[in-house]
Write a structure and sequence with these properties.
There is one protein chain. The chain is mainly alpha-helical. The chain has ten helices and two strands. The protein has a two-stranded antiparallel ribbon. Helix 4 runs antiparallel to helix 10 and helix 9 packs antiparallel against helix 10.
């Protein structure tokens, strides 16, 4: 019984941490699924369109039945306000406080670790065993598009960071995570579909067989675009966008580890060093965020005690007045 209580308390306190780690694990497997699907010939633009359609179809019934009475009305004014507010900052940093310094240093350290993993290779770490799963790679195209891939990756990180900030502001005015996930996937599917139609002129790219392409679309749509996006929205509302984004480097470490141990891909010393630095920075940032929460809890407790004392003091005065009146009535 005591063990169940402890587990319940542990899960309640660390529920956002557990869920966001699960989200990073889900994204990790998605990268390998999409890698295999793209190597099989799946068009990336068509894949994104189908993936978001699957997510929309899966989330719409849940949004309708669970949030139809609670979700606010989505208006054009709300969209415009969210866009303007999304340009503003989110995290408060106090450089005079150790927790503020820890957040800045932890973020910088994690970013440095990811940069090392991305741009520094170092010596190759030999894999002593055969891979459990083998994916064919077209090595001739890897170096030709390295610069283009790096620029697209940086652009993706910037847009991803802005989307987290927009989600945080949206949730303040539209606190319905399932409905917001559905809206995001519907709009994303429409945008991706239009872009794919304009850029892909062969009808054959839209055909999907009963193979890795179909399973990749189903997994990416249901797990990543639907379930994980909902988890991220929930964690953003509970902990803020910085809490959600600071776990993103964990996915980079997991991808490198699985690529080496399971898929038999080359692992470089830079990936090991960068992964260790990412974990160290993540712990520093977590410490800074946890200190924030303790301070907010203490502040809320002090405010609650102050309000309680304010309401209690008039009661003491009222309770003391009848004896005084009683004495005055007996005076000659």
């Amino acid at each position: 019984m005591a063990m169940n209580v402890r587990l319940g308390v542990f899960f309640t306190r660390f529920k956002p941490h557990i869920l966001i780690i699960f989200a990073q694990v889900g994204y990790t497997f998605m990268y390998f699924f999409t890698d295999a699907s793209f190597k099989h010939g799946m068009n990336p633009h068509v894949h994104i369109t189908y993936r978001q359609i699957v997510a929309s179809v899966g989330m719409f019934p849940l949004a309708y039945f669970f949030e139809r009475k609670t979700r606010p009305r989505m208006t054009g004014t709300l969209f415009l306000e969210i866009f303007v507010l999304s340009l503003l900052g989110m995290e408060i940093v106090d450089l005079k406080n150790p927790r503020g310094i820890a957040k800045v240093v932890g973020t910088s350290v994690s970013l440095g670790g990811v940069m090392i993993m991305t741009f520094y290779k170092g010596p190759i770490i030999r894999n002593p065993w055969h891979p459990f799963i083998h994916i064919q790679h077209k090595a001739s195209n890897l170096h030709e598009n390295w610069l283009k891939g790096s620029l697209l990756t940086v652009s993706s990180c910037i847009s991803w960071a802005l989307s987290y900030i927009m989600q945080a502001f949206t949730l303040k005015r539209y606190p319905a995570q399932i409905s917001l996930s559905t809206w995001m996937n519907l709009v994303g599917a429409a945008q991706s579909g239009v872009f794919a139609v304009l850029t892909q002129h062969r009808p054959g790219v839209w055909s999907v067989g009963l193979n890795i392409d179909l399973w990749c679309i189903i997994y990416s749509g249901i797990v990543c675009s639907a379930l994980i996006v909902y988890i991220q929205l929930w964690c953003t509302e509970e902990k803020g966008p910085v809490f959600v984004t600071m776990f993103d480097p964990l996915c980079t470490v997991l991808v490198a580890a699985l690529a080496y141990f399971v898929f038999g891909q080359k692992l470089y010393m830079g990936s090991i060093v960068g992964g260790g630095i990412v974990i160290m920075g993540l712990y520093m940032l977590l410490w800074g965020k946890e200190s924030d929460e303790f301070e907010l809890q203490n502040k809320s407790q002090l405010e609650s005690d102050s309000v309680h004392e304010t309401f209690q003091q008039p009661d003491l005065q009222i309770g003391a007045s009848p004896p005084t009146n009683h004495v005055l009535q007996h005076q000659p």
